[in-house]
Amino acid sequence: MASVDTFFLQPFRTHRKRLVPAQRVLAKTKHNEGERLGRTEEGVAVIHVTADDETGEVSALDVLARHGAIPEEFEEQIRAL
User: Fold this and answer.
1) Torsion, Cα of 25, 27, 33, 34 (10° steps)
2) pLDDT of the chain along its 81 residues, tens only?
3) CA 34/CA 29 separation, integer angstroms
4) What is the Cα–Cα distance from 50 to 39, expressed in whole angstroms?
5) Which of 4, 43, 62, 66 meets the CB 3.0–4.6 Å disulfide criterion with 12?
C-alpha cells in the first residue's frame, strides 16, 4: 500500500459576522501559497493529508500553518473526520 501526500488550503471569509469556510484550493506544495492566499482572505489554513493510494483511506490529517483569522473550532472539527 502506497500513501499519497496532498496539501490544500482552506480559506475563511466573514459572513454575517462569523468566519465561514470558503472553497478549498489544492496546493502544489506546502510552502508560500497559504501566505499569498492569506493576503486576500480573512484567514487560511494549510492542511496536509496522507491517504492510501488504493483505498483513499486517510491515515493522517494535520494543520501545517495558519495565516490570519481561523475559527477556534476548526482543528477540532477536522480531527473528528
Assistant:
1) 60
2) 688 888 999 999 999 999 999 999 888 766 666 666 666 788 889 898 999 988 988 888 888 888 888 888 887 777 766
3) 10
4) 27
5) 43
Pairing of strands 25-27, 3-15: antiparallel
- Which helix (H) or strand (E) covers residue 48, if one does? strand 43-52
Copy the grid coordinates of residue 12: 475563511
CA distance 11 to 74: 11
Cell of 43: 484567514
Question: Cβ contacts of residue 68 below 8 Å, gap of 6+?
Answer: 12, 38, 41, 42, 43, 44
